[in-house]
Structures are given as C-alpha cells and as structure tokens.
Amino acid sequence: ESLQAQPQQDAGGEDSTQTEQTRRPFSYQQPIPDDLWVRCPSCSGVMFRDDFERAHQVCTLCHHHFRINAWERIWLVADEGSFEEVDSSIRARNPIDFEGYEDKVHRLQAETGLSDAIVTGRARVEGVACLIGAMDSRFIMGSMGAAVGERVVRLFELGTAEKLPVILFTVSGGARMQEGIVSLMQMASTSAAVAKHAVAGQLYISFMTDPTTGGVTASFASLGDIILSEPGSIIGFAGRRVIEGTISEKLPDDFQRAEFQESHGFLDAIVSRSRIKSTLGSLLAFHYPDQTSDSHAAQTMNRAKQRSLEENQTARVLRSTEDLSTRVKASDSLDLIRAKGRPNIIDYLPLIFDDYIELKGDRLYGEDAAIWGGLGLLNGEPVTIIAERKGRNLEENNQCNFGMPHPEGYRKAMRLMRQAEKFGRPVLSFIDTSGAYCGV
Predict the structure, then answer these.
(1) Closest by CA position to 98, among listed 190, 173, 183, 185
(2) 209 phi and psi angles, rounded to 5 deg
(3) What is the dihedral sign for C-alpha 195, 89, 163, 289?
(4) Are 349 and 358 in contact (CB under 8 A)?
(5) Residue 166 bridge partners (DSSP)
(6) What's the pTM value of the predicted model, to 2 decimals?
(7) Sign of CA dihedral 155, 156, 157, 159
(8) What digits encode the pLDDT tens for the residues 387-428?
(9) Cα 372–376–379 angle (5° rounding)?
(10) Cα–Cα dist 78/131, whole Å
(11) Where are the alpha helices (DSSP H) in 4-84?
(12) First CA to last CA across the chain, in angstroms?
C-alpha cells in the first residue's frame, strides 16, 4: 500500500488532510523502492542490493550463487580492458525450418544484446594470455546449436594454433532442439576440437555453472584437464524428474549438485565466486609460469604469508617429535611413527611450497581423501603433488580411511601423473601409509 495520505472529507465536508498529516508526520514519505532489496530464493533472506552486488551476486546470508550472464562472467575474471571478442558474426540459422525459431532468435538478440548463447574471445587473467568462452542462460537457456558449437570449435582451434589455454564457463540446457540433428552433431565436433587442443599440449579449464546439462555436459564441458564448479550448481545429463520416472526411485536431495559430483569424482574443486579469478590465476601460473604477472606473484606471496600462520602449529608438532627422532632405538622410532599428533601432508604443504591447490576426483567413481593430489610451486617451479594422507585424530582418520587408498585414490593419482606428463611437470610423491585398503 502507498504510504501517501489521501485527502478526505470530514463529517462537516471540510478537507481533513492537514489533520491527518499532523497525526501521521511520516505519512507523506515515499515508499522504499523495490530495487533496493534482493530476496534470496534459497534462504528467503533479504539483503541490500549494494551488498549483494559487492558480493558478486552471492547471497550474503546463505552464500547462494545467483546466475549471472556471460559478460558478467568475463568482467569477473578477465584483466581490465584485456578482453577482445572473436567470432561474434557467427549466427544461428534454421536448418530444419522450425516454425517460429528465427523470430525467437531475433527477439532474444534484441533483448539480450547477444548474437547467440556464447561469447568468446582473447583475454588475460592475472597477466597470462588465454582464450575465454562464457555461455549465457538468457539465450534459449544456453542451448547449443550450430552457431554455439562452431564458436567453441573455433576457440579451441585458435588455442591450438596460438598455443593458448582455454577457459570455458558453461551454462546450458543441452542441445538446441530447434536445430534437430545439426545441434547433436556439435557434440562430436566440439569434442574433436578439444582433443586436438589437448594433443598440442595446451591447458583446458572447464568451469561448470548452474545449470550445465544435456549435450554440453556430455561433450566439451566434461573434457577439461581441470573441471571446476560454483557451489550448488546443477550438473548432469538428463533431468532429475526424467531419471526418477525411468528408475521409479527417489533420488537424494543433493543429486546432480556440484557437491554430489565432487564427492563422486567428477570435479577437481568447487570454487566460490569471490575466489574464481585468483584460482584461475594460480592454475594458469602453474601451467604457464613464464607469463605470470607481478601482481599474481605478489598475491602468491600474500597467500604464503597467510599460510605462515598455519606453519606455527606444524612447527610445534615438529619440535615435539625432534627429541624422539634423535633416538636410535627401534621402539622409539615406532613411537614416533605412531604419534597421534605427528605432521601429515596438510602440515607440510605450507612449509614446502610457495603456493598449492588441491585437485580431486578420479573422473569415474569417487574422491578418495586418502590420496592428496594437486599442483604446487616449489621455488617458483610448478610440480604435481601426490601424497598419501593420514589424520591426526579419529575423525580425520575416518575421513581419509587411515591413509589406506581405495581404487579411486590410485586412479586419481594416475590421472594427475598423466597430466604432469602432458605438461612436462615433475611429480613429487609423499608416502605415508599402512598399505592399500583391503576391503574391496
């Protein structure tokens, strides 16, 4: 209701507005504009729009990540003024004469300012030259037709020719049904382009956002050397209702969410929006150290300083075991090995490496916490890290199965070794285990 008082006639026929204004001194204030507030669809909380925008359109209460468009993605990660769009002239056609399709495309082009559901181009991320593609859900739900597929193919061909990494932000409902079999053919063509880019030894980072489904998931989105996602993103092929109807079973509440996919080995990491640029900058620096900018090096040093706080605890643990380590009796060595508070790989990482990032999953079945895998910088040189991990207490040991790897842990190690071979990185292995898990 409007808070403005309406002129009224009292019983004697006189205007009583002044009396009403005196009785309600704030009655003539304008109502608060609706666009000052944002309501979160996840927690139903209300926040100021300015706070919401400063948080990169993430709920300040429950951290729900709202969907953002392609240009917002690019502005979020690309260095200022570095993005240069390519292939924007490639437009959708109507290969099967689908009724009303051309009108719909023209209308969406006018409404969104996009020529199709993806924006591609050259850019720099923390000083490293790369190619970026960002899909947009506003354009027929980011569906992949011939134009989208052709732009993806050309992006990877450009990366192969110019020896550049490719970063793709995906959001899609799948293949575009208005183009029939032509849209399905893009799954094969994009996958072939990714394979040629990989053979050329270049990096491909796939960043899945909400939702990434259908033919896009089944093709180039799942072929990255490194696959990342935002929290809570839906990632899958067929929809939840379709699967439940097919198998006649109720699926878990978190089914197809990013967290579910990470626990089942299909994601390297879940990255919140505030950390996307720094994470991509670190990954590019690990693979292209010669191009790393001074600003990224400074950020790496800052992270190292922050992690020095973690070293204090590790140092105390190390000092507590120094006396034991100087003894020569076998029983004393055994006490040292079994000491509950002795350091594990998580303690050693900040002591050894300037920067590091964990990469998870075997891409087939699951994530095994008994194997810690990832990338690190050792005196400025990128290395692949594979380590067996134990816990310091019962809870941690249960999480990492007391340092006894499952098959998925070994598959993760093999996957990271193959990546190290592809990019010419040395592999550092840290062994700390009582043996493989014998329960399977």
Answers:
(1) 183
(2) -120, 175
(3) negative
(4) no
(5) 131, 204
(6) 0.85
(7) positive
(8) 999 888 888 889 898 889 999 999 999 999 999 999 999 999
(9) 140
(10) 10
(11) 17-23, 49-54, 70-77
(12) 66
